[in-house]
Amino acid sequence: MVEKINLSFEEMWERIMACDSKYDGLFFTAVKTTKIYCRPSCRSRKPKKVNVEFYHDIKAVEEAGYRPCKRCQPEIELSPHLEIVRNIITFLVNNYKQDLKLKDIAESVGLSPFYLERLFKQETSETPRTYLEKIRIDKAGHLLKSTTLTNLEICYEVGFQSPSNFYKAFRNLKNCSPSEYRKGLQNELD
C-alpha cells in the first residue's frame, strides 16, 4: 500500500505556487470552479486559494468528478519506475527529520541501496541525499515563514545534524542565509 505524504494544506499550496516538480505524483491540485486537476509543477495560471482541494490519489480526484489538465497531463505516468520513485519520495518527505542512511531508504521500498540510488538518480537526476536536503530546506523555509523558532531550532527540527551543514545547504538552495530569508519575508509584509 502506498503511504500518504504528510504535508499541510499550506505546504502543498507553497509547492504549487513554486511549480515544484519534486512533489509530482505525490498529491494533485483540484480546482473546484473548473473541475480540473493538475500536478504540483503545472505552469497553468494559479487558482484562488479558496477554490483549491488537494488529493493524494489520482483515483480519488477522478471519483470526485475532476478531469485531468490538458497542459500537465497528470494522468500519464512517464516512467515504469514512477511508482517506486514516488514511494521513495514519500518515505523521504514523511521521515525527513530522521538521520536517514541510504540503507534505511532502500529497506523501506525493498531495493538494494546500490539499485535504489541508481534508479532514483536516473529518474530524478538527483541522489536521494540531495533530494532529502531539498525537502529539509523546503520545510525550513516554511518554518521560517510560519513560526518564531530560532534558526538553530529550525536546523534540528528539519533533521540537520549540524548547523554548519544547515546554513550551507540553505544558502546553496535559497541564495541567502535563513536570517536573510526571514528578513526578506518580513519586508514583503511591511
Description:
InterPro entries: Ada-like_dom_sf (IPR035451), Ada_DNA_repair_Zn-bd (IPR004026), Homeodomain-like_sf (IPR009057), HTH_AraC (IPR018060), Me-P-triester_DNA_alkyl-Trfase (IPR016220). Keywords: Activator, DNA-binding, Methyltransferase, Transcription, Transcription regulation, Transferase. One of its GO terms (molecular function) is methyltransferase activity. This protein has nine helices and four strands, in the order αβββαβααααααα. 52% of the residues lie in helices and 7% in strands. The mean pLDDT is 89. The protein has a four-stranded mixed β-sheet with strand order 3-1-2-4. It is an alpha+beta fold and 190 residues long. The relative contact order is 0.11. Helix 3 (82-94) packs across helix 4 (102-109) and helix 6 (128-146) packs across helix 9. The chain folds into three domains: 9-68, DNA Methylphosphotriester Repair Domain (3-Layer(aba) Sandwich); 82-126; 131-189, Arc Repressor Mutant, subunit A (Orthogonal Bundle), CATH 1.10.10.60. A hairpin with a 4-residue loop joins strand 1 (28-31) and strand 2. The protein has helices at 9-17, 58-63, 82-94, 102-109, 113-124, 128-146, 151-157, 163-174, 178-189, and strands at residues 28-31, 36-38, 52-55, 67-68.
CATH topology of the largest domain: DNA Methylphosphotriester Repair Domain
Largest sheet: 4 strands, mixed
Major sheet: arrangement of strands = 3-1-2-4
CATH classification, class level of the largest domain: Alpha Beta
Number of strands: 4
Distance between the termini: 46 Å
Protein name: AraC family transcriptional regulator of adaptative response / methylphosphotriester-DNA alkyltransferase methyltransferase
GO molecular function: methyltransferase activity
Enzyme class: transferase
Keywords: Activator, DNA-binding, Methyltransferase, Transcription, Transcription regulation, Transferase
